[in-house]
Amino acid sequence: MHKNPVTIGPFESVGRAAALMNQLKIGGLPVVEKGKLVGIITSRDVRYCHPNRLVADAMSRNVVTVSPECSFWEAKETMESHGIERLVVVRDGRTVGIITKSRLYAEIGKHVDALTGLNRAEFLQHKAAELLQSGQEITIIFLDLDNFGTIDKEFGHVIGDEILQQVGKILKSVIAEGLDYLCRYAGDEFAVVTVRPLEEAKQLSWQMIKALADARWPQGIKVTASAGVAGGRRSRVRGEPNGTRNVRDLINLASLASTKAKREKRPVVVAGWVELEEVG
Amino acid sequence: MSSRPPFASHSSEPVRRAEVTIRLSEFEIPPMQDVLLVGKRAPIGPEAVRRMVDALTPDQYDIIYLDHEIFEAAVLKRSLLKFLPQEKFLPVILEEGMRVATENTVVKAQVNIVVQVNRAVDL
Q1: How far is B117 from chain A (nearest CA, A)?
Q2: Helix (H) or strand (E) holding B55
Q3: Neighbouring C-alpha atoms within 13 Å toward the C-beta of A23
Q4: Its domain of life (chain B) (predicted)?
Q5: What's the rounded Cα separation, in Å, for the pair A199 and A177?
């Protein structure tokens, strides 16, 4: 975010707001009265208003705000759901910053895998925590390609990258929007957090494995994968006997299950289902 | 005579004169009359009008914020609303205002309301 943004008072003129935005090359100003945020005026507002008008007569009074602790994805969802291009960051009723769409998207871009276009591991953690926080049960599917190191060595990294791109596309075509959230976790590992029940998530992991096995790959290479599945929900009881567990532990459980699947040459291993005391 | 005439042709400096005209008239307080209709894109908006009204004539006018195609707000003299309720008066004044105003204008209106009463009294 842009810290300590330039603000304007509600009883200054629209002309002054426009001049200030022009001078600073910015597209919006939070409107602050006696230290309290009362509105926001944007370049769009000033375009349609007489410059003599008061800022109070041109600003939007319903300011969409976020807290400094808000995640990138949460900010993006808020921005898109309101159809706006900037969010004011507020702490204890005071304006501490402003996030613009371009800056936010640039930042989110750093968390998107350039090769596959999928989100990275941070997104999986954020989404899992968000779903748990909203009281939903979640399941993690951790998918690991078999012998990918050998494929890389034998056919080269260019072919390896092509395969990874294709894996991303295939998995994307299998998942359902709004139910399943896919990411490239690391090298040849992909993960999904889903709100489907454990049994349905297990079926989904089978579909993924089958889709990869049925696909046509460059140079006739055989690409297979092993999956680990682990489900969890937010515990309603504090102080579980087995200690506090969180999203990371759940991802880890699924990851270990995928390792076990690989070791035992089984396509899918279900690690089971756990109560999570912390969602972070 | 040693002094030069003011408009001598060889003078390098032309003489300039200014004429001052002054028109004095009383500033009406309040500057609006009975009704003010504020266009959506007028040079002043409802907040500016509210501050002006509060400063010049406190407690005499009501500001009604509108969801209207041309006007953003209407300022009505409270005494008028004793004669005619707002819900009856406002649609009439907006309908007439629309005939003469645009989004960019602020229209003031003088309104006369005459109430006619016929009553029968038992003798």
Answers
A1: 43
A2: helix B46-56
A3: 8
A4: Bacteria
A5: 19
Contacts of B43 in chain A (CB under 8 A): 50, 52-53
What's the gap in Å between the CA of A57 and the closest CA on chain B? 5
What is the four-CA torsion angle of A54, A56, A60, A65, rounded to 10 degrees? 130
Residue B41 has its nearest CB partner, among A10, A49, A56, at: A49
Contact B51 A11 (CB under 8 A): yes
- Reported as a single tens digit per residue, the pLDDT across B45-71 is 998 998 888 888 888 999 999 999 999
Predicted confidence (pLDDT) per residue in A196-246, tens digit? 988 899 999 999 999 999 999 988 888 999 999 998 877 655 544 444 567
pLDDT of B5 above 50? yes
Lowest pLDDT segment from A71-80, A204-213, B69-78, B110-119: A71-80
User: Could you count the other beta carbons within 10 Å of the beta carbon of residue A42?
Assistant: 19
Interface mutation vs chain B, best among A44, A55, A57, most B CBs within 10 Å: A57
CA–CA separation, B24 and B100 (whole Å): 30
H, E, C per residue of chain A: CEECCCCECCCCEHHHHHHHHHHHCCCEEEEEECCEEEEEEEHHHHHCCCCCCEHHHCCECCCCEECCCCCHHHHHHHHHHHCCCEEEEEECCEEEEEEEHHHHHHHHHCCECCCCCCECHHHHHHHHHHHHHCCCCEEEEEEEECCHHHHHHHHCHHHHHHHHHHHHHHHHHHCCCCCEEEEEEECCEEEEEECCCHHHHHHHHHHHHHHHHHCCCHHHCCCCEEEEEEEEEECCCCCCCCCCCCHHHHHHHHHHHHHHHHHCCCCEEEEEEEEECCCC
Q: Which residues of B touch A53 (CB under 8 A)?
A: 42-45, 48
- How many beta carbons lie within 10 A of that of residue A247, not counting itself? 24
Smallest Cα distance from A78 to chain B, Å: 27
Q: Please write the tens of the pLDDT for every residue from A180-206.
A: 999 999 999 999 999 998 889 999 999
The structure's pTM equals 0.63
Residues of A in contact with B51 (CB under 8 A): 11, 54
For residues A228 and A220, give the distance between their C-alpha atoms in angstroms, rounded to a whole number: 26
The answer to whether A49 faces chain B, any CB pair under 8 Å, is yes
